[in-house]
């Protein structure tokens, strides 16, 4: 959250999940600007980076997304001030990319009995065997088939897979012939624009093994373009006006052009194939081929310069050239195959990226002829240490501040910190953060709160409460009531997970569990006291101790800053397309985004959508207009949004995850859990106060990020 609004990002619906690479990109550019090969993040933009007063990262150790929602009401300040929230994909060692891989984070007892940590901040030179490329492929040269992604690797990296539920309707290239080391390579790259549907292809390039361009075609998207992303795609509205080519045309042409044993090469090729809605069985992904630690990836621009001596994606040009990018990825794969892993590891790419030698390297590369391949001297000792912010900042002369488990002494090296209570850390932060351009402030719950049974109990409680909030009971009905008409009526409020008849009562009731919070709330608000299936019914949520504060929680969720200007609309017929909805809702004033949630397993659209407006008042006005609207014979219902994208995705994951904790063991620990939870609630409230004080002390134009890294 910036104290001045200079950060823009796509934050709606499925864009709310980011990787550690993406977070690292953001922090690196915010802290370093264009120094040390830092570039604008790929997923958002920081405007006027040079005017940033500083970057502050607050780490809440032992806390995860589970804690945020369990203690949602206690995080009063955090949820009201920090407008942008993301689910961070799990990683065992992300903090190492901030502190440095050499950090030794073993707790040591201090005189005060508090937890502290000593570490050596700067990693030492490693043996070549430690290079991730050598660890993955070994040192010997291999044929190209050794570098194609396995089916498991494709699944793990979100490649479209034949028969996968999310790839229904995708075109299969039918290139099923057995691959050999002499199979032909083809470079592929696409440029995309953001449309109402998501990322859609606007340009496709295909090059052969000789670098000859076989295809370089503009494509007209099916849906309305929301953002041309001209700075990256090079595509403008004017360019697409005369274009007649559509995605099916490109799919047909690619299918005809590729021989049956073709191997496609690209950089993060999964995104291109997903946008093309095509499935190809044999691929080489250069972002994975040039392996790095912790799952991080080199950018294509950097690899082209460091390995091939080529300048691509130059800022003087308007957008990327997909033919140039496809050719660069192809040549990188050819270089890797021809030279072998050992020669690639000897390039010391990490060193080139993160030390002062990068500047020397850039000068040398500029003097070399186009296409010249740069290689380091074989007798030069390798330096394969993983980059960290502390390294980069030290080189630029900035003094980073690290408070909590470890600190920096005057020389810039980490030292143990004896003052590690949260209160002491806050006091030091209030004094020292204004003097530093990059600060990492670490607060901790304490190791006593990460016991497995306590976490399992906490998880079970949150799962149980979410289930209760998504569940409603309706009735009583007549003995011979029509269940189908009940399901139809309640289905108009939103997607139903399950519906069962309760027969233990004098008259039958139905128990309905919805998939989104808004649907359950809409059912309570609109159908309580209504006549359904010939009976005047009561609609209510389960009455349990955990649900006593449900109304308060619903109200707070509704007022959450993430839900400002967002409304929920239900009752959509599944036959309605995005184009239909865009057409209908386009008359609403200040509409910014239309988002159709998908089933995370089947990929199908739900019978509801979310509308985001530029102004809150426009959302209020839209609610009055939409309720009762008819769209192709379907009557719409709407209300204020309760769950932002990352929350409903998380709810889905919570509901579908199987708790490993045995029931008897769990209940044996419940008493201990209740005592811990009460104390934990107070501790979380205190942490929220600490964040409030620290945030208020920051200068304007400070980028502040709060991390919930969990225990792993």
TrEMBL record:
Top-level taxon in the UniProt lineage: Eukaryota
Xref: InterPro entries: Nucleotide-bd_a/b_plait_sf, RBD_domain_sf, REX1-like_exo, REXO1/3/4-like, Ribonucl_H, RNaseH-like_sf, RNaseH_sf, RRM_dom
PROSITE patterns according to UniProt: RRM
Keywords: Exonuclease, Hydrolase, Nuclease, RNA-binding
An example molecular function term from Gene Ontology annotations: RNA binding
CC per GO annotation: nucleus
Residues annotated as domain RRM: 470-544, 565-643
Protein's UniProt keywords contain Nuclease: yes
CDD domains: REX1_like, RRM1_NEFsp
SUPFAM superfamilies: Ribonuclease H-like, RNA-binding domain, RBD
Protein name listed in UniProt: REXO5 exonuclease
């Amino acid at each position: 959250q910036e104290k001045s609004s200079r950060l823009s990002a796509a934050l709606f619906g499925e864009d709310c999940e980011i990787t550690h690479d993406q977070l690292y990109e953001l922090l690196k550019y915010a802290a370093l600007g264009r120094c040390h090969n830092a570039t604008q993040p790929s997923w958002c933009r920081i405007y006027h980076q040079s005017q940033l007063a500083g970057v502050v990262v607050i780490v809440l150790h032992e806390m995860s997304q589970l804690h945020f929602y369990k203690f949602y009401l206690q995080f009063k300040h955090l949820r009201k001030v920090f407008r942008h929230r993301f689910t961070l994909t799990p990683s065992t060692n992300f903090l190492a990319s901030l502190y440095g891989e050499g950090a030794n984070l073993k707790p040591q007892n201090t005189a005060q009995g508090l937890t502290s940590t000593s570490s050596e901040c700067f990693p030492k030179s490693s043996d070549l065997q430690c290079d991730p490329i050598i660890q993955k492929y070994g040192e010997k040269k291999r044929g190209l088939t050794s570098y194609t992604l396995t089916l498991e690797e494709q699944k793990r990296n979100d490649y479209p897979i034949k028969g996968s539920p999310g790839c229904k309707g995708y075109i299969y290239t039918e290139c099923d012939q057995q691959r050999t080391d002499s199979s032909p390579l083809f470079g592929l790259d696409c440029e995309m624009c953001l449309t109402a549907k998501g990322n859609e292809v606007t340009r496709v390039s295909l090059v052969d093994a000789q670098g000859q361009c076989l295809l370089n075609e503009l494509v007209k998207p099916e849906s309305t373009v929301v953002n041309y992303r001209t700075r990256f795609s090079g595509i403008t509205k004017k360019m697409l006006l005369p274009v007649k080519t559509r995605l099916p045309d490109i799919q047909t042409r690619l299918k005809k052009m590729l021989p049956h044993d073709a191997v496609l090469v690209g950089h993060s090729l999964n995104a291109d194939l997903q946008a093309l809605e095509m499935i190809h069985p044999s691929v080489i992904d250069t972002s994975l081929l040039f392996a790095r630690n912790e799952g991080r990836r080199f950018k294509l621009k950097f690899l082209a310069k460091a390995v091939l001596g080529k300048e691509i994606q130059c800022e003087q040009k308007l957008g990327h050239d997909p033919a140039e990018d496809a050719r660069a990825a192809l040549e990188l794969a050819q270089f890797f195959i021809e030279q072998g892993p050992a020669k690639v590891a000897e390039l010391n790419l990490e060193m080139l990226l993160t030390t002062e030698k990068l500047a020397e390297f850039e000068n040398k590369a500029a003097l070399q002829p186009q296409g010249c391949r740069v290689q380091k001297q074989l007798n030069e000792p390798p330096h394969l240490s993983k980059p960290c912010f502390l390294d980069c900042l030290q080189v630029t002369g900035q003094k980073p501040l690290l408070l909590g488990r470890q600190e920096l002494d005057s020389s810039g090296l980490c030292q143990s910190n004896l003052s590690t209570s949260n209160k002491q850390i806050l006091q030091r932060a209030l004094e020292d953060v204004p003097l530093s351009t990059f600060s990492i402030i670490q607060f901790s719950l304490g190791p006593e709160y990460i016991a497995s049974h306590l976490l399992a109990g906490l998880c079970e409680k949150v799962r149980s409460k979410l289930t209760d909030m998504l569940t409603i009971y309706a009735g009583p009905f007549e003995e011979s009531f029509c269940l189908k008409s009940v399901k139809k009526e309640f289905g108009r409020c939103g997607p139903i997970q399950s519906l069962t008849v309760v027969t233990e009562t004098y008259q039958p009731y139905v128990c309905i569990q919805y998939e989104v919070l808004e649907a359950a709330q809409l059912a309570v608000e609109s159908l309580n006291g209504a006549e359904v299936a010939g009976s005047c019914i009561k609609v209510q949520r389960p009455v349990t101790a955990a649900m006593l504060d449900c109304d308060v929680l619903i109200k707070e969720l509704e007022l959450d800053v993430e839900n400002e200007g967002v409304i929920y609309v239900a009752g959509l017929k599944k036959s309605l397309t995005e184009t239909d909805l865009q057409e209908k809702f386009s008359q609403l004033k200040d509409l910014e985004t239309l988002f159709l949630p998908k089933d995370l397993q089947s990929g199908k659209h739900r019978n509801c959508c979310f509308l985001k407006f530029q102004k809150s008042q426009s959302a209020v006005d839209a609610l009055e207009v939409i309720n009762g609207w008819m769209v192709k014979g379907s009557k719409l219902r709407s209300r204020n949004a309760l769950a932002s994208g990352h929350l409903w995705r998380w709810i889905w994951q919570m509901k579908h995850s199987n708790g490993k904790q045995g029931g008897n063991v769990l209940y044996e620990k419940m008493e201990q859990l209740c005592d811990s939870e009460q104390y934990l609630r107070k501790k979380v409230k205190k942490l929220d106060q600490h964040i409030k004080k620290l945030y208020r002390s920051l200068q304007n134009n400070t980028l502040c990020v709060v991390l919930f890294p969990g225990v792993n």
